C-alpha cells in the first residue's frame, strides 16, 4: 500500500526537514539510511533536499567521462545484501518497507527513515559491504610461506605463495609470489590438519588416501592461523564432499569453487544467484553443470522468479530444492532429470505441473506445499514412486476422492491449511491405499472418513466438525481437537488405537467403543461437557494417560478395579470427592491433578503402614481441603511436587512434613497457615517453597535447605527474617513483598541483596507522590521449568505527570533479552509518540513499530510478545473521563472486569485468524506442522524476529474503552497465564481479592497448578472510577479549562471511591463486607488513600506546584463541593489504616476494633455523607476545639487539610494522619494536601512501622488533632447527634432547594470569606 515517492519533493512537503541529508560513503562504505542515489537524476534525500554522492564523484554534463556511480546494495535485518537494479530506487524501497511494517502516514515514514537506528532493519551500502563470516565461508586466501612434502627432507624449501581455501580444496599456486597460472589442488575431505610445534603459527594440511600429500603453511598472525585452522578442520571432518554457501549474498558462484570437482552436495540457499550475471567474468547458475558428481543442490530462497534451466543438465542430481523462489511455472525440460528422487517446489506460485514430470521415474518426494493449486495435479497419477501427497497451504476448496483413487501409490495425504469445505466421493467405494490423512485447519463441517478403510492416522484438528465417522480396522491415532464435535463414531472397534485426542469439543459422554479399544494408551477428552467417566475405561490395562480436565464430572467411578493409569488429570470439574480406593488401586499413578474441584477430603493411599504409592506429582490447588487431608499425604513417600494452594489449611503438622523427604517443590499459598513446619529441613531436595497469601508470622527454616532456589513468602505477616551465616548457594529468588510488619536491618538487607531476584516493598518517603487513587496495581513474575525468567512487567503509576498510568507485560518465550529490552524502552517510546499524536490507535501502533527498530540486532533473530495498557485523562474534554487503551502482539493479553464480567481487550494473532493466514500465504512463508511460521513462532504479529519479515510484523491490535464506575480491575498476562486460565476464570478468581499484589500472585499460582511450565507474568490493576470523579461545576465561559484529574491535584491525593448504586445509599465495597456510618460534614471533597501494592513512581519535580500549568488557577471541586441537588451524596471512603489488621477485622493483638469500623487488612471502609450544608458548622467546631490536643498512642486520629493560601488557621491540626505510615500491604501513604481527609484508627496500640527505610510511624503530634480514648464516646455522640439533625434538616428542606445549598462562588474561591466552610476538622 506504499504511496509512490514524490520526486522531486518541494519545500512544502508534508514534513519539512531541517537536517542535512546523509551522504553516501565511498564504495564499500555504508549508505546511511534515508539517503538516496538515483541513476540519471539528481539524488533526492528523504526530506526533499538534494544530496551529493561522496567521493564517488559528481555527475556533470561537461566533464570528461566520470567514474561510474557506486553500485548500491540493500541489506534487510543484518542478513544478506542484495545489489539494486538500475531502475530500483532506495528511498522507494525503504518507504515500502516501513509502510509494510505498519506506519500509516507518509510524513511519519519519512521521519522514521531519517533515523540512524533503522539500519538494523534496512540499510543501504555504496559498494558491496564486507562480511567476515560469509567471506570466510566463501573462501580464505593470502600470501604465506609454504613448504611441500616432508619436513625432514632438506630439498623442500619455504617459499611465499598464494594459498586459497575454497569449497573442499586447498589451492596453492605453483609459481612463487604468483596470483595466476598453474595451481596445485589438495582435496581435504577425509584429510587432516595438524599443528606444527617447531614453527610459529604453522599448520600441516594432508589429503586422504594412499597418494596423500602434505603442505606446511606458516601464517603471519595468530588470528589468521586460528581462522584457517577452524575452517579447514570443518572441511576435513566431513564424510561427504559438501559445501555450504547459504546466506552469503552471492550473485554468482566463486570461481575457485570449481576446483572442487568431486563436489556432491552444494547448499546455496538464501542468496541472490542469477542464471546469467551482468558481470562478464561472473559464473552464474549455468555453470553448475560443471559439477559432474553433484547429487544434492539447494537453491531455495534465491528470488529466482524463473526456473533455473541449467540444473536440468546435471544428470547425477538426485535432490533439488527450489522452494520460495516466486516461481510461476515449471518448464517441460525438467523431465530429463531421470535420477531425481526429491523435488521441492514449496512456497511458490505454481498452479499446474508439466506432463513431462512423468519421466522422473525415480521421484519419491514432491513438495508442493504453499502454492496456488486448486486441485491435485493429474501428473501425480504417473509418478508411481511418490507415496506422500504434500499439498498443505494451497487453495483447494473440495477434495475429489476420484482423483485420489487414480493414485494408488499415495499412502500419506497432507492437505492441511487449505480451504476444504467438503469431500466429494463420486461413487468411490473405498480408498484402500491411504493410511495417513491430514486435514488440519480446513473448513470441514462434517467428515465421513469411512471411505478410507485402511486409515491409520487421522488429523482433523481446528475444523468446524460436528460429526465424525471413521473406519476403525487399522486406526492407530486420532487427532480431532478444537472442533464442535457432538458425535464421534469409529466402526469397527479400533483394536490398534493407541492415541486419541478429542479435547476442546462438545462431547457429552465418552463413546462406548473407547472402553473396548484394548491398546489405547493416551486419551485426551479435556474441555468437553462430559458428566461421567465409564468404570470400564479404568479397567483398560494399556491406558497410561487420561486427561479429563475441564468437563462437568460430578464424580469418578466408585469402586475401581486395579488400573494402570500413570497420569490422571481431572482438574476443573465438579468433583466433591475422589473414589475411596483410587490411590490404592492405581498403584502405577505418578501424576494426579485434581485442582479446581470441590474436594473436601482425600482418599487414603493405604490402609496399613505399608504403601505401594509411587505418586510423584500431586496438584490439589483451589479446592476446599482442610487439615484432615494432610496426614493422608504421608502415604506418598515419593512425592516430589505438592501444590495445595487456595484450600482451607490452617496448619501443616511437623510430623507429617518430616515424612515427605523426597519433596522438591511445595506450594501452600492462599491458605491460613501461621507457620511452615521446621521439619521442612528433612526435605533435603527441596528447591521451591511458595507460601504467599497466608498468615505466616515466623520466617521458616528454608534457608537451611542446600538445594533451595526459589522462596515466595509475600503477602504474609512476617516481622523479621532469620538468616544463616551464608545464603544457600543456589538461591535465586526471594519474594518478601506485602509483609507490612517486616523490618530488616542493614546487615540482613545487604546479605539479601546478593540474591539474583530479591523483592521487598520499596522504601518510600513521606512526601513522595502516591499513585492516583483511580488505580493501584500489583504484579508478579515466575520463571519456568528451566529457571529462566523469560517474562518482564512494566508498571508506571504516574506516567506523564501523574495524569496517566502505563502497564505492560512482555514474554520472550525462551529468550530473556527481548522482554528486558521492552521493559526498559517501551515507556519512553510511548511518551515520545504521545507528543506526536493524541489518536490512541496511532500512537500505540507507532510505539510498537518504533520498538521494532529499538530492539536493534537483538530483534533480528529473537522476538517477544507484548501487551501495553495506557490509562489517560483527556485534558480537552471537560467531562473528564479516563480512557484505557490496550495494544498487544503475540499471546500477551489484557482483560477488563466490567460489572463482574470479562471484557477482552486483546487479540491473539495466530494461524487460526482468517486474515492473518491469508497474509502469510501471500508472502509464501512455510507454516510447519506445529503451526509456526517457518518453524519459529506461532504468532503472526510479534515484536522482533525481523528475519521473518514481511510474514511476521509488529503491528499491534489496539482497543480503547472509556472507563466507567462499573470497571473493577483489569489483568495483563503473558502467554503462560492465558494458556492455563480462561478470561472468565481469571476474572472470577481475583474479583474478591482486595489487594492487587495478592490477586496477581493468585493468578500466577493457579496457572502453575493447572499445568503451566512456561514463565508467567501477571499484572492486576484495580480501578475505582466514579461518575463524580470529574465535575464541571463552574467551567469558565469558554469551557476551556477542565477540572483537575485526580492525578494532578494536590500532590498525591490518592482517590478511591467505590461504585455507588443509583439510589445513592452507601454499600460496602467488595473488599469490606460491612461499613460503618460516620456521617460528617465533609465539605469540599471526599478523599481516600488507595492501597497500592507497590510504591509508585515519584512525579517530576515542580510538576505539581499550584502555579504550574497542570494545577489550574481556578480551584474547582472534584466531587461537587457544592451540591447541585438537596439529596445526600453518600460514598464509601477507603481511609488508610495505620494499625495492622488480620483478615477477620481484629488487629494484631486480637483486640476488638471500634464498633462500626471494618477493615480487611489493607484499608478501612468508612461511609461518609458528602454535602454542602453549612449549618451547624460553627457549633461543631466549638465542640471539637474543646477537646485537648494531646498526643496519644490510642484514639481516633482526625486530620484536617494543610494550610491553603488565604485560609485562616484556627487550630494546628492540619497534617494528614498517615504521613509516611506504612499501609498494611507494605506501601506508604503519602503526604496529602487534600481538604478534610477523615482518618479513623482503632484503640489498638500502634505497631512498629513496616518496611525498611519506613518513615516515622506517627506524624508530629503538633500536626494532628487526636481525641483521647476517654472522649471517644462523647465524639461519637456528637457525630450521631449531628447525623440525626442533618437527616431532619434534609427532610425539611425537600421541596424547594434552599439558597444556602447552592452558593454561587466566584470563579476564584474567596477562601477568606468562607472560614467556617473550610476549617471544620471533620
From TrEMBL:
Keywords: Acetylation, Apoptosis, Cytoplasm, Hydrolase, Leucine-rich repeat, Manganese, Membrane, Metal-binding, Nucleus, Phosphoprotein, Protein phosphatase, Repeat
Pfam families for this protein: LRR_6, LRR_8, PH, PP2C, RA_3
Domain PPM-type phosphatase: 776-1023
GO terms assigned for molecular function: metal ion binding; protein serine/threonine phosphatase activity
Gene Ontology CC, one term: cytoplasm
Catalytic activity: O-phospho-L-threonyl-[protein] + H2O = L-threonyl-[protein] + phosphate; O-phospho-L-seryl-[protein] + H2O = L-seryl-[protein] + phosphate
UniProt membrane topology term: Peripheral membrane protein
Protein name: protein-serine/threonine phosphatase
UniProt source species: Pan paniscus (Pygmy chimpanzee)
Amino acid at each position: 500500500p506504499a504511496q509512490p515517492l514524490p520526486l522531486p519533493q518541494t519545500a512544502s512537503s508534508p514534513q519539512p526537514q531541517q537536517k542535512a541529508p546523509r551522504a553516501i560513503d565511498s564504495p564499500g562504505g555504508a549508505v546511511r539510511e534515508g539517503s538516496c542515489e538515483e541513476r540519471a537524476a539528481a539524488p533526492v534525500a528523504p526530506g526533499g533536499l538534494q544530496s551529493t554522492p561522496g567521493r564517488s564523484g559528481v555527475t556533470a554534463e561537461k566533464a570528461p567521462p566520470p567514474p561510474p556511480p557506486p553500485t548500491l546494495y540493500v541489506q534487510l535485518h543484518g542478513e544478506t545484501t542484495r545489489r539494486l537494479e538500475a531502475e530500483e530506487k532506495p528511498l522507494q524501497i525503504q518507504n515500502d518497507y516501513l509502510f509494510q511494517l505498519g506506519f500509516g502516514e507518509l510524513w511519519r515514514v519519512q521521519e522514521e527513515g531519517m533515523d540512524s537506528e533503522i539500519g538494523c532493519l534496512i540499510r543501504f551500502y555504496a559498494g558491496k559491504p564486507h562480511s567476515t563470516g560469509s567471506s570466510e565461508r566463501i573462501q580464505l586466501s593470502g600470501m604465506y610461506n609454504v613448504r611441500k612434502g616432508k619436513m625432514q627432507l632438506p630439498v623442500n624449501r619455504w617459499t611465499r605463495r598464494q594459498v586459497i581455501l575454497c569449497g573442499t580444496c586447498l589451492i596453492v599456486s605453483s609459481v612463487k609470489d604468483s596470483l595466476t597460472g598453474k595451481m596445485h589442488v589438495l582435496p581435504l575431505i577425509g584429510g587432516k590438519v595438524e599443528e606444527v610445534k617447531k614453527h610459529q603459527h604453522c599448520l600441516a594440511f594432508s589429503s586422504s588416501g594412499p597418494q596423500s600429500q602434505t603442505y606446511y603453511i606458516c601464517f603471519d598472525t595468530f588470528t589468521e592461523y586460528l581462522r584457517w585452522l577452524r575452517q579447514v578442520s570443518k572441511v576435513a571432518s566431513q564424510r561427504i564432499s559438501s559445501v555450504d554457501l547459504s546466506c552469503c549474498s552471492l550473485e554468482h558462484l566463486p570461481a575457485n569453487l570449481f576446483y572442487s570437482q568431486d563436489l556432491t552436495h552444494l547448499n546455496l540457499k538464501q542468496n541472490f544467484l542469477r542464471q546469467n550475471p551482468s558481470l562478464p567474468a561472473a559464473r552464474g547458475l549455468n555453470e553448475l553443470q560443471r559439477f559432474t558428481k553433484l547429487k544434492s543442490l539447494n537453491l531455495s530462497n534465491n528470488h529466482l522468479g524463473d526456473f533455473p534451466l541449467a540444473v536440468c543438465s546435471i544428470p547425477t542430481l538426485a535432490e533439488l530444492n527450489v522452494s520460495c523462489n516466486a516461481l510461476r511455472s515449471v518448464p517441460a525440460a525438467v523431465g530429463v532429470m531421470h535420477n531425481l528422487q526429491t523435488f521441492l517446489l514449496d512456497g511458490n506460485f505454481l498452479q499446474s505441473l508439466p506432463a513431462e514430470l512423468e519421466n522422473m521415474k525415480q521421484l519419491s518426494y514432491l513438495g508442493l506445499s504453499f502454492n496456488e493449486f486448486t486441485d491435485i495435479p493429474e501428473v501425480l497419477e504417473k509418478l508411481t514412486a511418490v507415496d506422500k501427497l504434500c499439498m498443505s497451504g494451497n487453495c483447494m476448496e473440495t477434495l475429489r476422492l476420484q482423483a485420489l483413487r487414480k493414485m494408488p501409490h499415495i499412502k500419506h495425504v497432507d492437505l492441511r491449511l487449505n480451504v476444504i469445505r467438503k469431500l466429494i466421493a463420486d461413487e468411490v467405494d473405498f480408498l484402500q491405499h491411504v493410511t495417513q490423512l491430514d486435514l488440519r485447519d480446513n473448513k470441514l463441517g462434517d467428515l465421513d472418513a469411512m471411505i478410507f478403510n485402511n486409515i491409520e492416522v487421522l488429523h482433523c484438528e481446528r475444523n468446524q466438525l460436528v460429526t465424525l465417522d471413521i473406519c476403525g480396522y487399522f486406526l492407530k491415532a486420532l487427532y480431532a481437537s478444537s472442533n464442535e464435535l457432538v458425535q464421534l463414531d469409529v466402526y469397527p472397534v479400533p483394536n490398534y488405537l493407541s492415541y486419541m485426542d478429542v479435547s476442546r469439543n462438545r462431547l457429552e459422554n465418552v463413546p462406548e467403543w473407547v472402553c473396548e479399544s484394548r491398546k489405547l494408551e493416551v486419551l485426551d477428552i479435556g474441555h468437553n461437557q462430559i458428566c461421567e467417566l465409564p468404570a470400564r475405561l479404568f479397567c483398560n490395562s494399556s491406558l497410561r494417560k487420561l486427561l479429563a480436565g475441564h468437563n462437568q464430572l460430578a464424580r469418578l467411578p466408585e469402586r475401581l478395579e486395579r488400573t494402570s493409569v500413570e497420569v490422571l488429570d481431572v482438574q476443573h470439574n465438579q468433583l466433591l470427592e475422589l473414589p475411596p480406593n483410587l490411590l490404592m488401586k492405581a498403584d502405577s499413578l505418578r501424576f494426579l491433578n485434581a485442582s479446581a474441584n470441590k474436594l473436601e477430603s482425600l482418599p487414603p493411599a493405604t490402609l496399613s503402614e505399608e504403601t505401594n504409592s509411587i505418586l510423584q506429582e500431586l496438584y490439589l490447588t483451589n479446592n476446599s481441603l482442610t487439615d484432615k487431608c494432610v496426614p493422608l499425604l504421608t502415604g506418598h513417600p515419593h512425592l516430589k511436587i505438592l501444590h495445595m494452594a487456595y484450600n482451607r489449611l490452617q496448619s501443616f503438622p511437623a510430623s507429617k512434613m518430616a515424612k515427605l523427604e523426597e519433596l522438591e517443590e511445595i506450594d501452600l499459598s492462599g491458605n491460613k497457615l501461621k507457620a511452615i513446619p521446621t521439619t521442612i529441613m528433612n526435605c533435603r531436595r527441596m528447591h521451591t517453597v511458595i507460601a504467599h497469601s497466608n498468615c505466616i508470622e515466623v520466617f521458616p527454616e528454608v534457608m537451611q535447605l542446600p538445594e533451595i532456589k526459589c522462596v515466595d513468602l509475600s503477602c504474609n505477616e512476617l516481622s523479621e527474617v532469620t538468616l544463616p551465616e551464608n545464603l544457600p548457594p543456589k538461591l535465586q529468588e526471594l519474594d518478601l513483598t506485602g509483609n507490612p510488619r517486616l523490618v530488616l536491618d542493614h546487615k540482613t538487607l545487604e546479605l539479601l541483596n546478593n540474591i539474583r531476584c530479591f523483592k521487598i516493598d520499596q522504601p518510600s518517603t513521606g512526601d513522595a507522590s502516591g499513585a492516583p487513587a483511580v488505580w493501584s496495581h500489583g504484579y508478579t513474575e515466575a520463571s519456568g521449568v528451566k529457571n529462566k525468567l523469560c517474562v518482564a512487567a512494566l508498571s508506571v503509576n504516574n506516567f506523564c505527570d501523574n495524569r496517566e498510568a502505563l502497564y505492560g507485560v512482555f514474554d520472550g518465550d525462551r529468550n530473556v533479552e527481548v522482554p528486558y529490552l521492552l521493559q526498559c524502552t517501551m515507556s519512553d517510546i510511548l511518551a515520545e509518540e504521545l507528543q506526536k499524536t493524541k489518536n490512541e490507535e496511532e500512537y500505540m501502533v507507532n510505539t510498537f513499530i518504533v520498538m521494532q527498530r529499538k530492539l536493534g540486532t537483538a530483534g533480528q533473530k529473537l522476538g517477544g510478545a507484548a501487551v501495553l495498557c495506557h490509562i489517560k485523562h483527556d485534558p480537552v474534554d471537560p467531562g473528564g473521563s479516563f480512557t484505557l487503551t490496550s495494544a498487544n502482539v503475540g499471546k500477551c493479553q489484557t482483560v477488563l472486569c466490567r460489572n463482574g464480567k470479562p471484557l477482552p481487550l486483546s487479540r491473539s494473532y495466530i494461524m487460526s485468524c482468517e486474515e492473518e493466514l491469508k497474509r502469510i500465504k501471500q508472502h509464501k512463508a512455510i507454516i510447519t506442522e506445529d503451526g509456526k511460521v517457518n518453524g519459529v513462532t506461532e504468532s503472526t504479529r510479534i515484536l522482533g524476529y525481523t528475519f521473518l519479515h514481511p510474514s511476521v510484523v509488529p503491528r499491534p491490535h489496539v482497543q480503547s474503552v472509556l472507563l466507567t464506575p462499573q470497571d473493577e480491575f483489569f489483568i495483563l498476562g503473558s502467554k503462560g497465564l492465558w494458556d492455563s486460565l480462561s478470561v472468565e476464570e481469571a476474572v472470577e478468581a481475583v474479583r474478591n481479592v482486595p489487594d492487587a499484589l495478592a490477586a496477581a500472585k493468585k493468578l500466577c499460582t493457579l496457572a502453575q497448578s493447572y499445568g503451566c511450565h512456561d514463565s508467567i507474568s501477571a499484572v492486576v490493576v484495580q480501578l475505582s472510577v466514579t461518575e463524580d470523579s470529574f465535575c464541571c461545576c463552574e467551567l469558565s465561559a469558554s469551557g476551556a479549562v477542565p477540572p483537575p484529574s485526580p492525578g494532578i491535584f494536590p500532590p498525591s491525593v490518592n482517590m478511591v471511591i467505590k461504585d455507588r448504586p443509583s439510589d445513592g445509599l452507601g454499600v460496602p465495597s467488595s473488599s469490606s463486607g460491612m461499613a460503618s456510618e460516620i456521617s460528617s460534614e465533609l465539605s469540599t471533597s471526599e478523599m481516600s488513600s488507595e492501597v497500592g501494592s507497590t510504591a509508585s513512581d515519584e512525579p517530576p519535580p515542580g510538576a505539581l506546584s499550584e502555579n504550574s500549568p497542570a494545577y489550574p488557577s481556578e480551584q474547582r471541586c472534584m466531587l461537587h463541593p457544592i451540591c447541585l441537588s438537596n439529596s445526600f451524596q453518600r460514598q464509601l471512603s477507603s481511609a488508610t489504616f495505620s494499625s495492622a489488621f488480620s483478615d477477620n477485622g481484629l488487629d494484631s493483638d486480637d483486640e476488638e476494633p471500634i464498633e462500626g469500623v471494618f477493615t480487611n487488612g489493607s484499608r478501612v471502609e468508612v461511609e461518609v455523607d458528602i454535602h454542602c450544608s453549612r449549618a451547624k458548622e460553627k457549633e461543631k467546631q466549638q465542640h471539637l476545639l474543646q477537646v485537648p490536643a494531646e498526643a496519644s498512642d490510642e484514639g481516633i486520629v482526625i486530620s484536617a487539610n494543610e494550610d491553603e493560601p488565604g485560609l485562616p488557621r484556627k487550630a494546628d491540626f492540619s497534617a494528614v494522619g498517615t504521613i509516611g505510615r506504612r499501609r498494611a500491604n507494605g506501601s506508604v501513604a503519602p503526604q496529602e494536601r487534600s481538604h478534610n481527609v477523615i482518618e479513623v484508627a482503632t484503640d489498638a496500640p500502634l505497631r512498629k512501622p513496616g518496611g525498611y527505610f519506613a518513615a516515622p510511624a506517627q506524624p508530629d503530634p503538633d500536626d494532628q488533632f487526636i481525641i483521647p480514648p476517654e472522649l471517644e464516646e462523647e465524639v461519637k455522640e456528637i457525630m450521631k447527634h449531628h447525623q440525626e439533625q442533618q437527616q431532619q434538616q434534609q427532610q425539611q428542606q425537600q421541596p424547594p432547594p434552599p439558597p444556602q445549598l447552592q452558593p454561587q462562588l466566584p470563579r476564584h474561591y474567596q477562601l477568606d470569606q468562607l472560614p467556617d466552610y473550610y476549617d471544620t476538622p471533620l
